[in-house]
Design goal:
Strand content: 15-25%
Distance between the termini: 28 Å
Structural class: alpha/beta
Order of helices and strands: EEEEEHHEHEEHEEHEHHEHEHHEHHEHEE
Shape: globular
Mean pLDDT: 97
Low-confidence stretches: none
Bound molecules: guanine, fe (iii) ion
Radius of gyration: 21 Å
Length: 432
Amino acid sequence: MDCFLLKGNVLYSSSMEKIEVCPNSFLVCEDGICRGAFAELPDRYKAFPVYDYGDKLIIPGLTDLHIHAPQFAFRGMDMDLELMEWLQCCAFPEEIKYADISYAQKAYSIFAQTLRESATTRAVIFATVHQKATELLMELLENTGLITYVGKVCMDQNAPEGLREKSAEASAFDTIEWLNHVSGKYQRTRPILTPRFIPACSGKLLEELGKIRRAYDLPVQSHLSENPEEIELVQSLFPESLFYGDCYDHYNLFGSKPGTCFGGQTVMAHCVYSSGAEMELMKRNDVMAAHCPASNMNLSSGIAPVRKYLDMGIRVGLGSDVAGGQTESIFRAMTDAIQVSKMYWRLVDRNTKPLTFEEAFYMATAGGGQFFGRVGKFEEGYEFDALVLNDEKLPHPQELSPRQRLERFAYLGGDMTEIEAKYVAGREIRLH
Ligand code: GUN
Ligand code: FE
């Protein structure tokens, strides 16, 4: 048995409303699985090594439910456009470069190293349409020790030459070839079906992807109801669809209808403008939402009413959506989510209460973690993903509680704070 313990101030979400705090406690990892946090070292674990992190904070790893690896290189630049223009002028021209494997090697190495050193332990990632570069990205991510889903993007229309796949058949063929190449190849890196978004996919392509999803039992990621112009385009391309999500659902790319549980889970990024009917369908088909507040601000998309999703029982996690979002930090996504929810309450709807820190922490850990199974808590049976947080460079005249220090770490994260150690499924990740 491979067993060890971490000692420190342990915090995790036991529910959406509550952060459990276990001061100076022992957190047990047995064969990659959490066995709980204990105030006293239980006799049965006395023979195993204890890594003592003193007064530091220990929290579950953070999940990024939506990030674009090939956009990492231009994060923090080209921020003054709305979605559709931004895709044409910024995102697509950068993604075309990944046809060149030596460029992909340079850019994806930087991405993988940054993600390794970040607070993210698990991520759901878009690559590009290019098979070779996508496999290279998977290789690099596998070597980080993080656990990820990676998607070769599918798009056969409304994209420039060089990024637009030649036909629906060619896109489906390449996707199958990619799946056959990567299936079973990695321990920690899994494929996910990735239609870019409805405007970039013909009906024929969506039909082919629905078939592939069934045949390979795959999870799905895409974008949903992000921007008004985008939504209008979807309606004009698929006039028979009732709403945006209905279009994915028509092709079996929108969760699982009750009783027909084929394929893995589905995560849809943004959901800023989902109608009541779209939300109902997400709930019924158990589609998860990836809330990406930074991207929604940068691209002037709007504010997703996350409170409504949570109240309906729709599962929500957080996404950085780099490079719509400028940073890979999920701590930043937590505080952005809280801040935009306050503006929604103040400016849009006084019946939609702002998110609390407890809720944002839950979404970043246990919420998004659900996409990967039992992930994001320190309860018995959960996979052991942990971060040790060092806030020693943030002195305070009083003694702060671990809960106060965690909130401060999230808001002030940056030069003055540090991830001291990181564990994914019980393995320590090399940080520097
Ligand atoms: N919709 C389709 N592609 C993209 C993308 O790359 N970023 C964002 N934010 N939305 C998209
Ligand atoms: Fe995105």
